[in-house]
Write a structure and sequence with these properties.
359 residues, alpha/beta, 8-stranded mixed sheet, two-stranded parallel ribbon, 42% helix
Length: 359
């Protein structure tokens, strides 16, 4: 697969930044610890996903932040869509002080003029984040691959193509993530166009409908449900995050592969709603800075196998080889965030109509 502009940027800039990261890291950490926001603020509200992600965030980042600053974190828990819609409805008085969103949610929020502009004064370590993992209004915290997952007991070798979804041998044992079908559809678009056009949604929906009609798929409504099914050996093929596959593989027969047609990175990060109280801005920026530090990145990598976008972070032995590797970057693309943000809600409705038709 050719190294188009976005793919090349993903690899080249990440590697370029890695060389300079070590010297800048100490300064970023000092800047974070030197903030005075905690003296004026008693609490900060974080919009976050629940379940195992929230538990890991508390251990990796939140406990240290609370202990160092004296600021108590409160949580608004929910999925991307619900929390984003609340931000839209309450933009003049945001329900959270820091919002965790996936890449498309972050871009959509920027397009909706929801986020406060970030700079090194607010988030010192943002200077170290490669440009494709941030904008002037948000920064990513973790990334992995939206990979093809496979059963290591029923397959002799990793599948090389997304057409494993249509292999009759796996009927009744393929997974579709119905909580948010975005990345299933993007993968199918890549497959249908030989990696050329991830926006080819009509062709993606043709494949999606074929899977629903012919393969008796298992519909998955949460990340934790996916993990349970893999750990119980109930699936043969699915599309999900490489990081989760690496974690689930410790207790179940699951591995991940990057198909020849390519795959996308999956990206999650943080933004500060524009209209939070002024006295909370520094504390919110300090929190985001904590998400970009070595200690927190290591805990998340150890527990969930996500990579932090700050180059030069060192990961424990035995963890590094389960993260996205340099060679993987050649076949990974940055998702078309604007396209996703504009169309995601329509895709959800269209997917549900297909499922209802064949139920």
């Amino acid at each position: 697969m050719t190294d188009d502009s976005k793919q090349g940027l993903l690899r080249r800039e990440y590697l370029k930044r890695a060389g300079a990261a070590g010297a800048a890291g100490a300064a970023g950490l000092a800047g974070c610890m030197g903030g005075g926001g905690g003296s004026e603020v008693d609490s900060l509200i974080l919009g976050i996903w629940g379940g195992s992600w929230q538990e890991t965030m508390i251990e990796a980042v939140c406990n240290d932040y609370e202990g160092d600053t004296g600021i108590t974190l409160e949580y608004v828990v929910g999925d991307n869509t619900d929390r984003f819609n609340r931000l839209i409805a309450q933009r003049s008085d945001p329900p959270v002080d820091v919002s965790q969103q996936d890449g498309a949610g972050l871009v959509r929020g920027e397009n909706e003029d929801l986020w406060l502009e970030l700079d090194e004064e607010i988030v010192p370590r943002i200077a170290e984040v490669p440009s494709q993992f941030k904008s002037d209004y948000w920064t990513l915290q973790i990334f992995a691959a939206s990979a093809l997952l496979y059963n290591t007991e029923t397959m002799d070798s990793p599948p090389e193509s997304w057409d494993a979804y249509l292999n009759p041998e796996y009927q009744g044992r393929v997974g579709l993530f119905t909580q948010d079908p975005t990345h299933d559809l993007l993968a199918f678009a890549l497959h249908q166009t030989d990696g050329e056009d991830p926006t080819a949604m009509d062709q993606a929906f043709e494949m999606y409908e074929e899977v629903v009609a012919e393969m008796d798929p298992v519909y998955i409504t949460s990340s934790d449900e996916y993990g349970n099914r893999w750990q119980n050996g109930e699936l043969d093929v699915a599309r999900y995050w490489s990081a989760r596959a690496a974690s689930w593989g410790e207790e179940g027969p699951v591995g991940f592969a990057i198909p020849s047609a390519g795959a996308f990175t999956t990206n999650f990060g943080n933004a500060i709603p524009k209209n939070i109280p002024e006295e909370k801005v520094e504390a919110a920026g300090d929190f985001i800075n904590y998400t970009l530090q070595q200690d927190g990145a290591q805990v998340i990598a150890e527990q969930m196998y996500y990579t932090n976008p700050v180059p030069g972070i060192e990961y424990p032995e035995g963890v590094q080889d389960k993260l996205i590797q340099e060679a993987d970057l050649e076949n990974l693309r940055v998702p078309p965030f604007d396209f996703i943000a504009e169309n995601r809600s329509d895709w959800q409705q269209r997917v549900q109509e297909i499922i209802d038709e064949y139920s």
